[in-house]
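*** Backbone structure tokens ***
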Amino acid sequence: MREQLMATAFPIVPVAKAPMGRTPAKLIDGAAGAIPRADPPSATRAARILVLGGGFGGIAAVRRLEHLFGSRPDVEITLVSRDNFFVITPLLFEACSGRLELRHCAQPIRPALRRARFVEATVTSVDADRRVVRAVGPNDGTYELPYDQLIVALGATTNEVLIPGSEAALTFKTMTDALVLRNHLIERLERADAAITAAARRRCLTVVVVGGGLVGVELLGELTAFAGDVLRYYPRIRREELRFHLFEAGPRILPEIDAKLADISLRVLRGRGADIRVSTPVRAIEPERLHLSYESIDAGTIVLVAGIVPSAVAAAFPVEHDRRGRIVVNQAMRSLSHPTIWALGDCAAIPGPDGEPYPALAQHAIREARRLAENVAAVVDERAPAPFVFRSLGTMASLGHAQAVARVFGVRLTGFPAWWVRRTYYLFQMPRWDRRLRIMLDWTVALFFRPDITKVDIATEQVQMRDERASSTRRSGGYIAEQANFAKGDADTRTKARA
């Protein structure tokens, strides 16, 4: 009986691909069959809880739901995520600089789940009236997933609308972003080492970070530390040739923490030679060039971390949103317009006791997820949900070179103690002890060694060979044209001589 309930509780309805000449929307209804409005759970069907997003919030919500419902067969929990791993984003900075392994930032989802079902797919839309989520799998297969309670934890993306030309800058949000930026920086050092002109060398050695919040400051700190560590391998590049800039449109950096710790961070980074300017909005970005109101700067590396916007998918959900595109919810994190939809994290506007939304920080997302899971469990058991109330435990910012600033339980910490507390906190956000112990050993060993300068090429052999053939063809074409011009010039000279 239990197996029958589990099999029928949460069907994933495949949708065939649209043939030529037919619209996908029509085919979805025709292929999958019209799914009626979800009936309330009964003795013959389990309650279906669907969680969208495999980040901090989504994973924490699913794990709490598993704990609350145990092995109850009348509840089916499913998690949908684009990737089969979740990223500890605050550790990406040190992974980019090589202080940590990239795999330390990525934790597999399946081992973290006990009974919940996992579906690797990208959410495309939600039909709130029929209570159906549409998603696309890795093989382009389209699915419809019905739900009774929907938890939206799809996060946010970098805001590329605020500054014209933002698409020309690098971003720093995913593991791929960290790997691409690391490869890019090493490539610029290699080009600078071999550069012929002073202008090309200066451009390769100039790094600009746009945005002075937590992400921008932590990234700048790690980049300055990384450059100082690896310059020993580039004897032709002097430390003073490296130029690091950070531009913040607001009146100070690190608005998320108190002013005293922000000032300490400012002194540390400026002590490493970084040029940090506040009240300096960036007007436009071009490839390897950035424009301020009073000057333009040539830079081989431009990283945009000036704010976030909710996931485009979440912003398109047919529910009430605020002016920033976040889903509007009450203090219980329940949608004001659709009570079967819940939201948390970066894509939700969750009002605090003062009426202002909670900040988009990992510690808030984790605690929001736990309370939201308890509220969903209460609704399933026909109890009233409770409001989310949370007072921040503190804020931490890494500055590179095992240095950080932190305010924990009202106590200010700086230097190595703050860095150790930060590392330890995020270590315990990893869901399994076997991973924690392995990573703890790796971290301890890494303290005694410098980061390497290996540039990981993510291109396949076929792509590399195709690029080499194209480059060879261009060189051959140039050589043939040059020889043809030389022969023509020689022939003209001989003709003139005969005349």
User: Anything to note?
Assistant: The chain has two domains: 2-82+121-158+309-380, 166-306+394-437.
